[in-house]
Protein backbone atom coordinates (compact mmCIF):
# COMPACT_ATOMS: atom_id res chain seq x y z
CA UNK A 1 0.00 0.00 0.00
CA UNK A 2 1.49 3.36 -1.01
CA UNK A 3 1.52 6.39 1.25
CA UNK A 4 -0.91 8.25 -1.02
CA UNK A 5 -3.56 5.59 -0.37
CA UNK A 6 -3.35 6.36 3.35
CA UNK A 7 -4.59 9.92 2.82
CA UNK A 8 -8.25 10.13 3.71
CA UNK A 9 -10.48 13.03 4.59
CA UNK A 10 -10.28 12.00 8.24
CA UNK A 11 -6.47 11.80 8.16
CA UNK A 12 -6.21 15.27 6.68
CA UNK A 13 -8.89 16.73 8.96
CA UNK A 14 -7.00 15.42 12.00
CA UNK A 15 -4.09 17.69 11.03
CA UNK A 16 -6.27 20.83 10.89
CA UNK A 17 -5.64 22.04 14.49
CA UNK A 18 -1.85 21.93 14.11
CA UNK A 19 -2.00 23.60 10.71
CA UNK A 20 -4.34 26.27 12.05
CA UNK A 21 -2.02 27.09 14.97
CA UNK A 22 0.90 27.43 12.58
CA UNK A 23 -1.06 29.61 10.14
CA UNK A 24 -2.40 31.79 12.95
CA UNK A 25 1.13 32.44 14.19
CA UNK A 26 2.18 33.51 10.71
CA UNK A 27 -0.91 35.49 9.67
CA UNK A 28 -2.20 36.70 13.06
CA UNK A 29 -5.79 36.62 11.76
CA UNK A 30 -8.05 33.64 12.39
CA UNK A 31 -10.11 34.08 9.20
CA UNK A 32 -6.98 34.27 7.03
CA UNK A 33 -5.45 31.33 8.89
CA UNK A 34 -8.59 29.25 8.38
CA UNK A 35 -8.60 30.07 4.64
CA UNK A 36 -4.93 29.10 4.32
CA UNK A 37 -5.53 25.80 6.10
CA UNK A 38 -8.56 25.06 3.91
CA UNK A 39 -6.51 25.76 0.77
CA UNK A 40 -3.73 23.55 2.13
CA UNK A 41 -6.02 20.61 2.82
CA UNK A 42 -7.66 20.98 -0.58
CA UNK A 43 -4.27 21.07 -2.31
CA UNK A 44 -3.14 18.02 -0.32
CA UNK A 45 -6.30 16.13 -1.22
CA UNK A 46 -5.91 17.01 -4.91
CA UNK A 47 -2.25 15.99 -4.96
CA UNK A 48 -2.57 12.93 -2.71
CA UNK A 49 -1.13 10.75 -5.46
CA UNK A 50 2.10 12.76 -5.24
CA UNK A 51 2.54 12.07 -1.52
CA UNK A 52 5.11 9.30 -1.28
CA UNK A 53 5.59 9.30 2.48
CA UNK A 54 9.27 10.31 2.32
CA UNK A 55 8.51 13.05 4.84
CA UNK A 56 5.94 12.82 7.60
CA UNK A 57 2.39 13.78 6.67
CA UNK A 58 2.43 16.80 8.99
CA UNK A 59 5.76 17.99 7.59
CA UNK A 60 4.40 17.66 4.04
CA UNK A 61 1.25 19.58 4.96
CA UNK A 62 3.18 22.36 6.72
CA UNK A 63 5.32 22.66 3.59
CA UNK A 64 2.17 23.17 1.50
CA UNK A 65 0.83 25.61 4.10
CA UNK A 66 4.04 27.67 3.97
CA UNK A 67 3.50 28.10 0.23
CA UNK A 68 -0.13 29.13 0.75
CA UNK A 69 0.94 31.73 3.33
CA UNK A 70 3.65 33.04 0.99
CA UNK A 71 1.02 33.26 -1.78
CA UNK A 72 -1.21 35.28 0.56
CA UNK A 73 1.57 37.78 1.32
CA UNK A 74 2.42 38.12 -2.37
CA UNK A 75 -1.24 38.73 -3.26
CA UNK A 76 -1.75 41.27 -0.49
CA UNK A 77 1.41 43.14 -1.53
CA UNK A 78 0.10 43.41 -5.11
CA UNK A 79 -3.45 44.39 -4.25
CA UNK A 80 -4.00 47.94 -3.12
CA UNK A 81 -7.20 48.02 -1.14
CA UNK A 82 -9.32 50.98 -2.25
CA UNK A 83 -12.04 52.34 0.03
CA UNK A 84 -15.55 51.32 -0.94
CA UNK A 85 -17.13 54.66 -1.89
CA UNK A 86 -20.43 53.07 -2.93
CA UNK A 87 -21.42 52.54 0.71
CA UNK A 88 -22.57 56.08 1.52
CA UNK A 89 -25.67 54.81 3.40
CA UNK A 90 -23.67 52.57 5.69
CA UNK A 91 -21.30 55.35 6.83
CA UNK A 92 -23.62 56.70 9.53
CA UNK A 93 -24.43 53.29 10.97
CA UNK A 94 -20.73 52.49 11.25
CA UNK A 95 -20.05 55.91 12.78
CA UNK A 96 -22.67 55.26 15.47
CA UNK A 97 -20.86 52.08 16.38
CA UNK A 98 -17.68 54.01 17.17
CA UNK A 99 -18.88 57.36 18.54
CA UNK A 100 -21.38 58.45 21.18
CA UNK A 101 -23.75 61.41 20.64
CA UNK A 102 -21.21 63.91 22.05
CA UNK A 103 -18.75 62.94 19.32
CA UNK A 104 -16.34 61.12 21.65
CA UNK A 105 -15.12 57.58 21.10
CA UNK A 106 -17.46 54.84 22.25
CA UNK A 107 -14.73 53.10 24.27
CA UNK A 108 -12.18 53.48 21.48
CA UNK A 109 -10.39 50.73 19.65
CA UNK A 110 -8.96 48.20 22.09
CA UNK A 111 -5.52 48.26 20.45
CA UNK A 112 -5.33 51.99 21.24
CA UNK A 113 -5.58 51.42 24.99
CA UNK A 114 -1.76 51.39 25.07
CA UNK A 115 -0.44 52.12 21.58
CA UNK A 116 3.18 52.12 22.77
CA UNK A 117 2.80 48.61 24.19
CA UNK A 118 1.11 47.42 20.98
CA UNK A 119 3.95 48.88 18.91
CA UNK A 120 6.56 47.30 21.17
CA UNK A 121 4.82 43.92 20.84
CA UNK A 122 4.81 44.20 17.03
CA UNK A 123 8.49 45.18 17.07
CA UNK A 124 9.32 42.26 19.36
CA UNK A 125 7.63 39.71 17.08
CA UNK A 126 9.37 41.17 14.02
CA UNK A 127 12.75 40.82 15.75
CA UNK A 128 11.83 37.34 17.03
CA UNK A 129 11.05 36.30 13.46
CA UNK A 130 14.45 37.58 12.29
CA UNK A 131 16.14 35.62 15.09
CA UNK A 132 14.22 32.44 14.27
CA UNK A 133 15.01 32.81 10.57
CA UNK A 134 18.70 33.02 11.46
CA UNK A 135 18.60 29.54 13.00
CA UNK A 136 19.80 26.66 10.82
CA UNK A 137 16.75 25.30 8.91
CA UNK A 138 16.50 21.96 10.74
CA UNK A 139 16.92 23.64 14.13
CA UNK A 140 14.30 26.27 13.25
CA UNK A 141 11.87 23.57 12.09
CA UNK A 142 12.29 21.50 15.27
CA UNK A 143 11.88 24.57 17.49
CA UNK A 144 8.83 25.78 15.53
CA UNK A 145 7.13 22.37 15.68
CA UNK A 146 7.64 22.16 19.45
CA UNK A 147 7.18 25.70 20.69
CA UNK A 148 4.96 27.38 18.12
CA UNK A 149 2.88 24.54 16.69
CA UNK A 150 2.74 22.80 20.09
CA UNK A 151 3.66 19.24 19.17
CA UNK A 152 4.86 16.90 21.90
CA UNK A 153 8.54 15.96 21.91
CA UNK A 154 7.83 12.45 20.59
CA UNK A 155 5.72 13.89 17.73
CA UNK A 156 8.54 16.28 16.79
CA UNK A 157 11.01 13.36 16.85
CA UNK A 158 8.77 11.41 14.46
CA UNK A 159 8.20 14.37 12.15
CA UNK A 160 11.84 15.42 12.01
CA UNK A 161 13.18 11.84 12.17
CA UNK A 162 15.31 12.54 15.27
CA UNK A 163 16.39 10.47 18.21
CA UNK A 164 15.16 11.77 21.56
CA UNK A 165 18.72 12.72 22.59
CA UNK A 166 19.26 14.64 19.35
CA UNK A 167 15.92 16.42 19.82
CA UNK A 168 16.92 17.70 23.27
CA UNK A 169 20.33 18.87 22.00
CA UNK A 170 18.71 20.75 19.10
CA UNK A 171 16.10 22.37 21.36
CA UNK A 172 18.77 23.43 23.87
CA UNK A 173 20.92 24.99 21.13
CA UNK A 174 17.91 26.68 19.52
CA UNK A 175 16.91 28.27 22.83
CA UNK A 176 20.45 29.47 23.47
CA UNK A 177 20.73 31.01 20.00
CA UNK A 178 17.32 32.66 20.21
CA UNK A 179 18.11 34.00 23.66
CA UNK A 180 21.43 35.44 22.47
CA UNK A 181 19.84 36.99 19.38
CA UNK A 182 16.95 38.50 21.36
CA UNK A 183 19.32 39.86 23.99
CA UNK A 184 21.37 41.59 21.30
CA UNK A 185 18.54 42.80 19.06
CA UNK A 186 15.72 43.42 21.54
CA UNK A 187 16.56 43.48 25.21
CA UNK A 188 19.73 45.57 24.92
CA UNK A 189 17.91 48.10 22.72
CA UNK A 190 14.97 48.20 25.13
CA UNK A 191 17.30 48.91 28.07
CA UNK A 192 19.05 51.67 26.09
CA UNK A 193 15.68 53.22 25.19
CA UNK A 194 14.71 53.29 28.90
CA UNK A 195 18.03 54.92 29.87
CA UNK A 196 17.58 57.67 27.28
CA UNK A 197 13.95 58.34 28.29
UniProtKB/TrEMBL annotation:
Keywords for this protein: DNA-binding, Sigma factor, Transcription, Transcription regulation
InterPro entries xrefs: RNA_pol_sigma-24-rel, RNA_pol_sigma-70-like, RNA_pol_sigma-70_dom, RNA_pol_sigma70_r2, RNA_pol_sigma70_r4_t2, RNA_pol_sigma_r2, RNA_pol_sigma_r3/r4-like, WH-like_DNA-bd_sf
GO molecular function terms listed in the Swiss-Prot or TrEMBL record: DNA binding; sigma factor activity
GO biological process: DNA-templated transcription initiation
Domain RNA polymerase sigma-70 region: 16-78
Domain RNA polymerase sigma factor 70 region 4 type span(s) in chain numbering: 133-178
Keyword DNA-binding: yes
A Pfam family that the UniProt record links to this protein: Sigma70_r4_2
Family named by the database record: Belongs to the sigma-70 factor family. ECF subfamily.
Protein's name according to its UniProt entry: RNA polymerase sigma-70 factor (ECF subfamily)
Amino acid sequence: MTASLLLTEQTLAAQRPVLFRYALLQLRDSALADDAVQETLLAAWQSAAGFEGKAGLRTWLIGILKHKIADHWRRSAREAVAPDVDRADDGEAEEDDYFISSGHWNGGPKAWADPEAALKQQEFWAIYEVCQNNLPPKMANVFMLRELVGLDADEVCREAELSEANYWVIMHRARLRLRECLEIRWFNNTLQDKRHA
